[in-house]
Amino acid sequence: MAIAKRKARSAPKSKGAAKAAAVKSKRRRLPYYNQTTDFSCGAASLLMAMRGLDKEIPFDRVHELQVWREANTVYMGAGHAGSSPYGIALAAWRRGFHAEIWVSHKGAVLLDYQKKPEWRKAGKLMQEADEASVRELGMPVEKRSWDVADLAQARAEGAVPIVLVSTKAFHGDNTPHWVVFADSDETRVYINDPWISRNKGQTAKFQTGRAATHAAFMNMAKYGPRNERAVVLIRGPQI
To answer: What order do you get walking across the sheet with 176-184 strand by strand?
Structure first.
């Protein structure tokens, strides 16, 4: 054991190699924003994505609620409406960003979560209108399967993925929720989750870059009996 230690010290890495290794291993952190209501996770996630791409983006409650007001086309059946991928994409575009949407099926999402028939109809109508606007603006909407490698590639190319998940794994209930895919490595993904379950001892620091295995993340990144999946890739300010 002593010989092994002496050998390790006798051949240190160069400063350049050590610096490169440190840079490679350092996860890319995104600024964290804690949603201020129980229905503005989509808006809070978009604020984190935009702020990560442009430090001039306002990072406050007024902006959060402005974004929520624009994107709230998923009627939850109780309480206030939440954000659809199409509403998030349009809110990003209005602020100079480009978005791309991946969905597991065509048309409106999370209709199964809407309990009242009239709210289901309203949500479907508004999402269809927003989807048409997204397509007219040239933002891609793609029905596709995806995995962690696809999100990691998009992140490496400069996009920030906002992902639909269930709250069951992180918070114990089972509600549709938006989070930010901040980074990943060979075994884990790192998520900025805008919701903080303070009764579980969670803090903003705990929910910033929160780790999950690839398998756990893929299991949580779906919702409802149809296993609906949705991702909104936010890309840098439009030139």
So the answer is: 141-143, 97-103, 230-237, 160-166, 176-184, 188-192, 210-213
Give dist(CA 151, CA 147) in Å, integer: 7
Amino acid letter, residue 208: T
Please, where are the H alpha helices in 95-196? 117-136, 148-156, 168-171
Question: Would strands 141-143 and 188-192 be described as parallel, antiparallel, or unpaired?
Answer: unpaired
Place of tokens 């600024």: 31
Q: What is the pLDDT of residues 167-178, one digit of tens each?
A: 999 999 999 999
* Mean pLDDT score across all residues of the chain: 87
d(CA 119, CA 144): 27
Cα 46 to Cα 67: distance, rounded to the nearest angstrom:
8
Provide the whole-model pTM. Answer: 0.87
Residues with Cβ < 8 Å from 24, sequence gap 6 or more? none
Pairing of strands 210-213, 230-237: unpaired
- The C-alpha atoms of residue 71 and residue 47 are separated, in whole angstroms, by 12
* Phi, psi dihedral angles at 82 (to 5 degrees): -110, -175
Q: What's the gap between Cα 64 and its chain centre?
A: 15
